Amino acid sequence: MATAFSPTKLTATVPLHGSQENRLLLPIRLAPPSSFLGSTRSLSIISSPRLIHANAARRSPVVGVQEVVKEKKATNSLLITKEEGLELYEDMILGRSFEDMCAQMYYRGKMFGFVHLYNGQEAVSTGFIKLLTKTDSVVSTYRDHVHALSKGVSARAVMSELFGKVTGCCRGQGGSMHMFSKEHNMLGGFAFIGEGIPVATGAAFTSKYKREVLKQNCQDVTVAFFGDGTCNNGQFYECLNMAALYKLPIIFVVENNLWAIGMSHLRATSDPEIWKKGPAFGMPGVHVDGMDVLKVREVAKEAVTRARRGDGPTLVECETYRFRGHSLADPDELRDAAEKAKYAARDPITALKKYLIENKLANEADLKSIEKKIDELVEEAVEFADASPQPGRSQLLENVFADPKGFGIGPDGRYRCEDPKFTEGTAQV
Amino acid sequence: MAALLGRLCRKLVFPGTTHGAKRLSTSACESDTVKSLNLYSAINQALHIALETDPRSYVFGEDVGFGGVFRCTTGLAERFGKNRVFNTPLCEQGIVGFGIGLAAMGNRAIVEIQFADYIYPAFDQIVNEAAKFRYRSGNQFNCGGLTIRAPYGAVGHGGHYHSQSPEAFFCHVPGIKVVIPRSPREAKGLLLSCIRDPNPVVFFEPKWLYRQAVEEVPEHDYMIPLSEAEVIKEGNDITLVGWGAQLTIMEQACLDAEKEGISCELIDLKTLLPWDKETVEASVKKTGRLLISHEAPVTGGFGAEISATILERCFLKLEAPVSRVCGLDTPFPLVFEPFYMPTKNKILDAIKSTVNY
């Protein structure tokens, strides 16, 4: 399909299964939406000729990217090397096993609260984050476990955080929806949709400032992940405008899994093709098959290269799907079984496995050993989390302000909540 | 969800229904049919009645079409049609602003904000538009038909963004009303009053009680008056004021205090803005002591307003300082929730220290 990168067709797509048929051209028809409210269009991925012309006339510098992609196509037919393939596979398996283990632990009562699992969307996380360096920043949503894992936060730290233990990445303060890591520049999960996008925009500005004003050699980019529901929120548009205006090194990645809890994307959005909103603000908008990690990776490479070069932001819409419900408390009754089955058949992990084996990049034994290694890693993470201590009571009043004396430490130098007078008599907890 | 709540729930004793205290304001006549309902079903009934009685009332918000994440809007879309009960995109500011517009044109907009924690983007619309519409248009327009419903309060495992109690922010805005029910029967009557009140109302529903609280609720259409507090339990030694889910905790503390010979008077404020100062004042003049309890952080919480007003009115009658047993001044914690909350024991300690001042 024609993306906003180039007016010609099919430059950013490589069929994963080696067939001629290009998945991106298949229109996706979902249940006809109500005619009173919501979009009357179905989600067919054929862009309008008007838009292509409009893009060609735009001033945004997309020419360089086209050349990059053409060159890629000419030289090699395989998109990844063996090492890269195994790395991608391992990352996706880690994401999947971890989330499955979360579900188990939740139903056993070890984990509590609102937990949102990422099953099915691993290709987006792996495709983007595995191209980033340690100093690049990632901003996520409440569905953030796998983003944190891909960015390099250890499975132990994430699992402990989920269990609410002091060894968690946020010392047990945040829980499932708030995964932060200063070391890995994971700027958080955000429980509130769209809240992270302005934060990511600010982080991107920092990189640009460091490079252009402070003259430091800073090539860091920021990747902001969010869902289709967020694309109807004001914060999203405000940030698209600012990012394009200031030409920030940021990539806006929409994980369009077609559902916002129980609301279908088509019924909530006047124009369901989110990638089109990029050009409206003066940045390229790209649509990619988010169930195919290699395609995502190709698009991610273009976008990251663009940002690192200083050419500004990109909006990438990844068409993906979550195999489980919105959260572990969601019975997931609203989605059509046929729709679920269709996407289950496009499982990104199965697809990558097939690609690796068919192109002789790896054999079954290699992949099995990776799976085994990850299983052990996740088991070990659970044991570690189980064995870790709960946070001490003093942590309740810590970090409200910068100065621990703000609320935490009383005149006698001890944490107020440790002072027996704080909870007198029968008010022990 | 119910299983999780069950795991972490505190034992619920319902004021007014289990220990037979006299209810000073009744809301139904004896011959009407009543049904045992939980909070979300009572609210659901209220919404059904509201939509039935006024053809220009609408219910909208995130995910209300299938019944809402708390099932408060079940059956509405099927019965009244998708033209009147519809899902909105995820934009609180847009949703409330849109509701204000509908209300300004004479419709009744019943807006659902999925969690009170998400109401802040809409805060601007509520404070700057809804509250001031009648005032600044010189009574040419008003958005009295607007009712905003939001589940608020701790739920045991909600963490930072699913447990907040933002009522204090809204109580500082002249022009809107803030109402919080304590039980299913109250919720139905109060919600119908709010919907029919000619002023914009923010209606906070204690989410912890959605399934946990069960009460006999009359099936017919009835309204409970706003700005009237109710004395749920009479006593002589100390007045306790609260609202919403916190009342059940306070009631338990009162029962424990009674065992130690302290007679407590428990008042449900129901409407926080404008609040019934006369009832609380009369009670404090009788008992001479006041204790206020709410889940929101203590500094700047609504308890401060009650304390200051009662001090002005009853200074010479007070035997002890007004006590506030509230949440701590931190963001709502995840793991530390039991430690943060104003528990029964904290209230009991405060009752004793106030009485023995």
UniProtKB/TrEMBL annotation, chain A:
Query: What EC identifiers does the entry list?
Result: 1.2.4.1
SUPFAM superfamilies associated with the record? Thiamin diphosphate-binding fold (THDP-binding) (SSF52518)
Q: Which reaction does it catalyse?
A: N(6)-[(R)-lipoyl]-L-lysyl-[protein] + pyruvate + H(+) = N(6)-[(R)-S(8)-acetyldihydrolipoyl]-L-lysyl-[protein] + CO2
Alphabetical GO biological process terms: pyruvate decarboxylation to acetyl-CoA
Domain Dehydrogenase E1 component residue range list: 91-391
Q: Which UniProt keywords apply?
A: Coiled coil, Oxidoreductase, Pyruvate, Thiamine pyrophosphate
Question: Where are the bilayer-spanning segments?
Answer: none
Return the InterPro entries for the record. DH_E1 (IPR001017), PDH_E1_Alpha_Subunit (IPR050642), Pyrv_DH_E1_asu_subgrp-y (IPR017597), THDP-binding (IPR029061)
What function does this protein fulfil?
The pyruvate dehydrogenase complex catalyzes the overall conversion of pyruvate to acetyl-CoA and CO(2). It contains multiple copies of three enzymatic components: pyruvate dehydrogenase (E1), dihydrolipoamide acetyltransferase (E2) and lipoamide dehydrogenase (E3).
Q: What is this protein called?
A: Pyruvate dehydrogenase E1 component subunit alpha
Organism of provenance: Eutrema salsugineum
TrEMBL record, chain B:
Principal cellular location given in the protein's record: mitochondrion
Q: Keyword Oxidoreductase, does the record have it?
A: yes
- Name the CDD domains for this protein: TPP_PYR_E1-PDHc-beta_like
Q: Where in the cell is it found?
A: Mitochondrion matrix
- E.C. designation(s): 1.2.4.4
Q: Per the database record, which ranges form the Transketolase-like pyrimidine-binding domain?
A: 37-212
Co-factor requirement: thiamine diphosphate
For this record, the Gene Ontology CC terms, alphabetical, are: mitochondrial matrix
Any one of the GO BP annotations: response to nutrient
Gene Ontology molecular function, alphabetical:
branched-chain 2-oxo acid dehydrogenase activity
Keywords per UniProt: Mitochondrion, Oxidoreductase, Transit peptide
Catalytic activity, reaction form: N(6)-[(R)-lipoyl]-L-lysyl-[protein] + 3-methyl-2-oxobutanoate + H(+) = N(6)-[(R)-S(8)-2-methylpropanoyldihydrolipoyl]-L-lysyl-[protein] + CO2
Extract the coiled-coil ranges from the record: none
Q: What class of enzyme is it?
A: oxidoreductase
**Oligomeric form and interacting partners:** Heterotetramer of alpha and beta chains.
Please give the name of this protein.
3-methyl-2-oxobutanoate dehydrogenase (2-methylpropanoyl-transferring)
User: What organism is recorded for this protein?
Assistant: Eutrema salsugineum
